[in-house]
Prior knowledge:
- This protein has helices at 2-53, 64-77, 162-172, 202-211, 225-234, 236-243, 250-268; strands spanning 84-88, 103-108, 133-134, 147-153, 173-184, 214-222, 280-287.
- The chain has 296 residues and is an alpha/beta fold.
- The longest helix has 52 residues, at 2-53.
Amino acid sequence: MDSELKLTAFLKRHLWPFLQVKRFIDRQLYELNQSRINAQISLRESLSLTRQIEDPGLTVGTMNSRNRDRWVCSMLADIPPKSRLLDAGSGEQKYRQYCDHLLYYSQDNAAYDGKGDGRGGHVEGWTYGSTDYICDIVDIPAPSESFDVVLCTEVLEHLPEPLAAVRELTRLLRPSGQLLLTAPFCSFTHFSPYFYSTGFSRNWYLQHLAELGFCEVELKPNGNYFEFLAQEIRRLPTMSDSYGSTKLPWYARLAMLVFLRFLQECSLEDSGSSEYCCYGWHVKAVKSAVVRQAEV
């Protein structure tokens, strides 16, 4: 009996550390396996949610550029053939292809290189088309009243003096000519350091265009509050990855999906929330036939 007790004591004394190590390793392996299983579940959940968020039927928050392109193209299509059009701040000249029936001229300062100062949003690989006037938009070397139409899209927020630019475009426009403008109502830093204004309100256009002698001013909102909010919710994964401490987890994507579906319902039933907020305003203004340059 004594020998058995001694053997038991010996085994406990010498094998117990090994048993503890084995138990520790088993626990670690179990936890690693659970982490792997949870990661796989999370990945499947995330991929499934991402596909649902990117469903072509869930359009809320995705129509900013498409709405603007459609409006610009419809305006260009209505301009009489052979009209002289100036694309001010033309950049990559994305609308030039829709101006084959017009006499198209372009202007830009050609200063942005796709990288800027690295702050905010940028478009790498940015290129300029063949530009007729490489100059400051407030001092374009062209005769007064020399264009039938002036187009200026998504430019004003990048100018330190947007009103001076609109005044110069007015000078270049013939009486009864059309000024076509788009700019954000609310935007975030992009193309910095060439970014000076977050946006322009409906009242900004009405006030200054009237002062500059435009007799007809039509303003059309691009989107509405619900569309704008959805656009920024869709931006969350990129912002979290770039500026946050972690990538967006699956449960945050689930919350995104729930909110986006709700916002789409709200947008479909919208009754004028653009007066509160929208992507921006599409502006068509006609210069008065009786206003001469001396007055502007």
